[in-house]
Amino acid sequence: MAHIPEGVLTAPVLIGGGLASVGLLAVALRRLDYDHLPRAAVLSAALFVSSLISVPLGPTSVHLLLNGFMGLLLGWTAVPAILVALALQAAFFGFGGPLVLGVNTLNMALPALVCAWVLAPALGRVRPARRVWIGFAAGFLGVMLTGGLVAATLALSGEPFRPAAQVLLLTYPPLALVEGLVTATIVGFLQRVAPELLSTGARSHV
Amino acid sequence: MSRTSPVWFLLLALMSQPALAHKLKVFAQTEGDWIRGRAYFVGGAGAGGARVEVQDSEGRVLAELTPADDGSFAYRALAPVEHRLVARTGDGHGARWTIAGETLQGAFSPPTTPPAADPSDDSGLPPTRTQPPADIPAPQVPLDHDPVAPQTFDPALIGAIEQALARQTHPLAERLNALEERVRFQDVLGGIGYILGLTGLALWWRCRRAGERA
Description:
The structure holds two protein chains of two kinds. By secondary structure, chain A is mainly alpha-helical. Chain A is built from nine helices and two strands. In chain A, helix 3 (67-74) crosses helix 7 (131-156) and helix 5 (101-118) runs antiparallel to helix 7 (131-156). Chain B has a domain at 24-112 and 155-183: Sandwich (Immunoglobulin-like). Helices cover 33% and strands 21% of the residues of chain B.
């Protein structure tokens, strides 16, 4: 899934992904909103732990990604949050590895940023009752975009594209649906108990 | 109250500790000239849909295996050379395991006469027997006696012993291998501690800069 292990990708892909991640990180750190840091830490911890609950599905095993939700709530701050969580997963659990960290971060962070750009502004525009749907869209979009990026990185590295694409087509849509539902539930819950969290999120990354 | 949702999620994740994690592994051992093994996700679930390639030391593909639903597979080696097992699930999960050529040596030792010992001799013995059989004369051999050279043993007998030993130790070795990779509670706590520490560092950095400016 989002953790491509060591030794699968070729050097140009690894270097390209690493450079792109460093670039994103530089922008993110420049724009870092320090008031978002505690929230980013909680979400980073959630992402770090979420990979432990994974479900065997078809030939592979999947778990929640949470990157759409992180993009929605954190905006640019999602990039360092994802990087930290992935680095710790590589160090503690052996998912991914130090060399592929750049590519894996890119695959997770780009969809988060897309969600931040496309969906977070909508949070402020729609009626509060409709925010749940935006949550669903963020979860769905985050997973599908990550799936597409993983398939693209594998294809760029010369892995046989068809089996990879087949597996991804088989496993990502159900996961995206589940992720969408989970994200919608969390957004709905936040809307009830702390709506200001969602509206500040919507304002801050426009 | 505002942050309870992720916190609950986190707690839930912590409580479901033995849950399946997500890294593909492959493990194999020799039994005679058979290589038996299993492809699985760390935590235990077999990777039934994975594909296992058997390669030699130069990367030439000798065979491609499709594991059973529980991830187990078997391959009959044709020569006592190094075998590399490469498992893939197709979406970027991959794992390797190497079988050294020496471990297959026993099964490919020069053929001799079949074991002279009556097979019914030991077939009735329980496998967990700890007492040595009474008919082993080794302890009675005087110390100044010629050391028993290995070639005086029947190679077929050695092969049989190696095979039996492999059968007995296989589950143990597999468990040990799986334990090595298990995600432990302290790892999870350690990771969360790192995240909190990094956040604290960033906030401290910000306070320091704000103080300098003031």
